[in-house]
Q: What sequence folds into this?
């Protein structure tokens, strides 16, 4: 289960208004980026994730894909799968053929779940414009977010937003324990089809799965 929680470090990885003054230039870019994603019924992205911790001399890479519709998402990475319908979360571990079911309460979650990346800045975060960078030949604006809650184990999130189409090209999460998580989008598909079964766990498709209901 700890591995599943680490994945949701896409975290706290795409919402009370911020009390402090915000950078208007950064805010305009974030609003344009957010509007782009919220206009889509659903989107799918393939990504790479890199975990680095210089003190522990750790560097790990993995790849995965995610399907998002509003606050719902379906994440697959490294033999693990997390499905969230906005109310219930299923965390499936293929190696153990086991699924943990829990109620999902975003107010209890300091980790950035995958559906938040385009709206994270709207609640509880300060944001500043941090210049530009090139990513895959694309010029990006760099926006840095910092949580107002000092107990949050994440102290900074850095977003690279394409100047051309306001899409998120990558983001990096900095945690107090020294871990740095970088997520880079490799392929993006807007407005993919979804239905009522997309964001639920169908036990029949996982033969012999052990179900642990934590609700």
A:
């Amino acid at each position: 289960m700890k591995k599943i929680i680490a994945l949701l470090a896409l975290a706290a990885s795409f919402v009370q208004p911020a009390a402090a003054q915000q950078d208007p230039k950064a805010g305009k870019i974030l609003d344009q980026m957010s509007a782009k994603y919220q206009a889509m019924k659903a989107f799918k992205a393939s990504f790479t994730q890199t975990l680095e911790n210089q003190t522990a001399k750790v560097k790990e890479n993995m790849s995965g894909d995610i399907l998002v519709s509003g606050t719902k998402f379906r994440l697959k990475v490294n033999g693990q799968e997390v499905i969230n319908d906005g109310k219930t979360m299923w965390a499936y571990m293929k190696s153990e053929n086991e699924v943990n079911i829990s109620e999902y309460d975003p107010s209890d979650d300091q980790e950035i779940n995958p559906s938040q990346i385009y709206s994270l800045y709207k609640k509880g975060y300060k944001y500043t414009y941090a210049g530009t960078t090139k990513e895959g030949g694309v010029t990006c604006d760099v926006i840095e977010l910092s949580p107002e809650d000092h107990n949050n184990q994440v102290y900074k999130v850095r977003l690279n937003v394409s100047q051309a189409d306001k899409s998120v090209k990558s983001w990096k999460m900095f945690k107090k324990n020294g871990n740095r998580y970088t997520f880079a989008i490799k392929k993006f598909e807007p407005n993919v089809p979804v239905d009522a079964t997309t964001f639920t766990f169908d036990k029949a498709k996982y033969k012999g799965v052990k179900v642990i209901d934590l609700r």
Q: What stands out?
A: Residues 24-38 form the longest helix (15 residues). The chain has one domain: 2-192.
